[in-house]
Amino acid sequence: IIIMGFLDNFFPEPEGANPQKREARSTLRWASLFLGELRDGLTMINMQSAFLIVSKGYSEKQAGVLFFIFGMSQFLFQTPAGYLYDYSNSKIAWLSAAAVGTTLLTVFTAGFASPEGGNLKLMILVKFLQGAITAFIPPGLNSITQGIVGAKGMTSQVSVNEMMNHMGTAIIVLVGSLLGVWLYPDLGILFIVSPIACAGFLVFLNRINPDDIDHNEARGLTKEDEDNKASTKNATNSSEYVAPDEEGAVVKTAGSGKDHISNQPSFNFGWDASSVFKTSAATNLKADSPLRVLRDPTLLIFLLIVFLFHMSNGTVLPLVMQTLAIGSGRQGILLSGLCIIVAQIFMVMSANICGTYSGKYGRKGIFLIGLFSVPVRCLILTFLARMKGEESASFGLGCVILATQILDGVGAGVFGTMYILVTSDIAGGTGRFSMTLGLTSAAMSIGGTVSGYLGEALAQDLGYAQAYFILMFLSLIPALGYLLVMPETLPALAHPKSNPAIATIHEGDETEGAPSSSY
Fold first, then answer.
1. Please, is 397 exposed, middle or buried when counting C-beta atoms within 10 Å of its C-beta (0-12, 13-18, 19+)?
2. Which end of the chain is more exposed for a tag (fewer CB within 10 A), N or C?
3. Crossing angle of helices 154-183/42-54, nearest 10°?
4. What confidence tier does 94 reach under pLDDT thresholds 50, 70, 90?
5. Comparing C-alpha atoms, which of 48, 226, 175, 66 is closest to residue 131?
6. Which residues are within 8 A (CB) of 501 and not within 5 positions of it... i.e. 6 or more apart?
7. Which of 394, 454, 447, 395 is nearest to 419 (CA)?
8. What pTM was computed for the model?
9. How many CA atoms lie within 13 A of 486 on its CB side?
């Protein structure tokens, strides 16, 4: 407790943070630390791939099939998961259940996978279930985060969450790697770190007071312009809301500066309709319908870029781990585990930079650094894989290959923080933040799914060097696309003078067919 209190002093408070929620923000940070490898399931999937190939004799294509099924399942369930979090006020319970479910399936894989894919069909079912369950984790964490700190505090808090995620992952993987070296070649027991991390996550997550989560902020229903904040501070129509009463709606109190809105969104899916959050007779707040959100061209461009980035980048880490692990015994297991640790350390630094500068100088420039780091990394790996050839890597060459994970820390670290912030920018005022985050997470999943099988197939059929070379060209597409097509989304830079004080749609104010968001 003393150490936690000491470290809390090093984290900046989010902009406009409510002092009464300081404990909730601190608890959220430490929950993020233990969430680490559980967050999207990919760390455990990468470790499982190395485990199945090295210890269970799986082929690259068999491991790729499991990666493909896992990613497809995430793709199918992430948008519904985001919509669920927009609808539900039981966010903590849903997130807790998802963490427990994915942990149990990780342990099941380690304990019951048969040699050489003897029960591959069962493992396919397990990965499908695990992908579906982990789909509920990213939108859950970020919905709770936005509900605690609000849209204005997201830049700082998401950066801190990501830093803690990466530190937690590095610690967990380090412990698992040391266990793997000690127990080689029987690596199944290293996955004991997963339930330990899950237990820590549940302890901290359930210490968050549900009353500290503003479910309307969590949905992204309100949006306030900094330039007009002072002039609207005492206005009747304020962006600060109190929780609804037990019946879901209460009458606005005169002079309170707070709108009281219901906690149940509409299930309207129409193209032009919005979902009305009923309030008093004088005021209605509306959330955009799901199909209307999909009409935003900036969102569609971003979804395509997210998909292409993960299609080219998702498989690089498992290929690097396999390059180091296959045929290298204990040394290979140690170096393959260090791949994740080195990357996570630099992801912590990248997340900190994103939180410090993206709110001042915009999202686009920092995002481009992360995107262009991938083709540089793949080009270097192409040369190193050709130097290695078919032989096991020497310790010196293995260390050089390991050093390329610094670029992974830059690319994935920047992307992991910035895609949440860009999604929050795009979803501002729509009331559909979690659903929009589900869409971008689904694009990540389907991209990673295609990447997982594509990379393993290329490595098995053409060799690792050729696989890296092809991935280099694929990774240039999203980087150039973001440079040439994607606009700046930070509200202060995108619309420095034109944003309304509160970008909510009031009944009768909407022009027929006009989009509710200016992004």
1. middle
2. N
3. 20
4. very high
5. 66
6. 224, 225, 228, 229, 231, 232, 235, 239
7. 447
8. 0.66
9. 29
